Amino acid sequence: MDGMTTSAQLRKAAQTDPEVVEDTAGGARTYSVAGEEFASLDAEGFVHLRLPASEAEDMTGRHETAQRVEHGVRVPIKDINGQALNYWVRRAWLSCAPPERAARAMEADLAAAGGVGDLPKAIGKPATRALANAGITTLDQVAALSDAELNALHGVGPKAVKILRDALATR
Question: Which residues does 103 contact at the CB level (< 8 Å), separation at least 6?
């Protein structure tokens, strides 16, 4: 427990996955996918994660201040480190995303650079995974996106965008 995790880190973790909707109401910030809330931060500083019972048990076993609640777990944000938060937010997203969307995301997690469609290997593993997670597997699909849209994908940076644009230009 590093005591340094912030609401900004929760936001970044929640928005790593596609189709996430953020809402702020009544002092709480919530994150949902397909209308299902999977994570939130309440006004008292507790992160609430919607997890299947087995994963909720696992989390409470690993985090001393985590508590079981209906549909998951709550834990003070100050008591969970960023890496653990990323993991549990991802597990919550997977449990709430539509099955076909969750399956595509898990498949994208295994994507290797140079192993997805005709995307160039040089863009690297994080960019390859981010594109696959968004359902983008070809240079033709990349061509339809602006640099800003590509950069908005978590894992795709300016270097990957330049490599993709160069690949399109030489094609």
Answer: none
